[in-house]
Amino acid sequence: MAVILSGDFHGGCCGEAKTLTTKKIENFCLLHGIKLPDIHYHIILGDGGALWPNNKESEYWFEWLSMKPFFTLVVQGNHEPYPVIYDEQRKVPCAAAGIEGDDNAALYKVYDNVFYFRRNCEYRIEGKKLLVLGGALSTDKDRRKPYKS
C-alpha cells in the first residue's frame, strides 16, 4: 500500500491541484518503483477547499479526484466551509473509505471517494494509527467573510 500526502490543496484555486496531475503521479510511481494500483489513499493535510459556494474550479478538481482509483481523505484546515462539510447528511461510517476509527470517528462525504475526516479522532488505515487534529491560526481571518471566503 502507498499513500500520497499533500497539503493546502485550496480546491485548486491557487494552483496546488495542478501539481497532482495524473502524469505526475504516474511519473512519481515509476521513479520510486510503485505501481499506481498500490496507491490506496491520498490524504490532503489541511485546506482541502471542497464545497465552497459557486466555486467551479473547486468542483472540477474534486470531481477529478473522485475519479481516481484511490480514496482522498482531507484533514480540515483553517480555510474550509465548516458548516457545509459537517452537515449531518454527509456523515458516513469510516468503512465507506475502507478505514476504521474510534467510537467518535466519522467521515463526511463530499464527492465519490472523497471524504473529510472528523477532527480529534483516531483512525486506522491498514493497521496504522492516525490521530487527526487539524486547524490553524488563521492569519487572514479579519479579511474573510464567514462561510463565503
Give an account of the 3D structure.
- With 149 residues, the protein is α/β, with parallel strands linked by helices.
- The chain is built from three helices and nine strands; from the N terminus they run E-H-E-H-E-H-E-E-E-E-E-E.
- It has helices spanning 22-32, 56-66, 82-85, and strands at residues 2-6, 39-45, 71-75, 91-92, 100-101, 107-111, 114-117, 121-125, 128-132.
- Strands 1-2-3-7-6-4 form a six-stranded mixed sheet.
- Strand 8 (121-125) and strand 9 form a beta hairpin.
- The termini are far apart.
- The relative contact order is 0.16.
Question: Which terms summarize this structure?
Answer:
3 helices; 149 residues; globular; single chain; alpha/beta; 3-stranded antiparallel beta sheet; 9 strands; 6-stranded mixed beta sheet; 27% strand
Compact summary:
The chain is α/β, with parallel strands linked by helices and 149 residues long. It is built from 3 helices and 9 strands, in the order βαβαβαββββββ. It has helices spanning 22-32, 56-66, 82-85, and strands spanning 2-6, 39-45, 71-75, 91-92, 100-101, 107-111, 114-117, 121-125, 128-132.
